[in-house]
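are you around this afternoon, could really use another pair of eyes. what follows is a protein written twice so to speak, once as letters and once as structure tokens for the fold. i want to understand how the tokens follow from the sequence so walk me through it. anything you notice is useful, everything is just below.
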Amino acid sequence: MPEKPLQDTTVTARLSLTEEAIRQVKSIMARDRMEDCGLRVAVRDGGCSGMSYHLSFDKEPAPQDVVLDAGGLKIFIDAKSAPYLQGTVIDFVGGLYGGGFKFSNPNATATCGCGTSFAT
């Protein structure tokens, strides 16, 4: 079940991570000794459908970032990406060929087969 959506008061940004996604991010952070970092969720130009999701770790938010908290995990979203991520749920799914983060984005009008690219 997804975590309660998070909202910042200055820039509208609603983004949910499931408990499994939070657990996986924290596990990766511990493995790579990055516990003092936050998860950066961004949208960039490119990919099969025109835009792609990008996940990385940053120690500090940039001045214009929306900063959210999900189960003790800090999330940084740049102001340009925030509207594209409105209402998005990030999950982690496993499978025979490996696992990965899955984005369910209500703003996407088309997605590619790999699940990391979308169009609005």
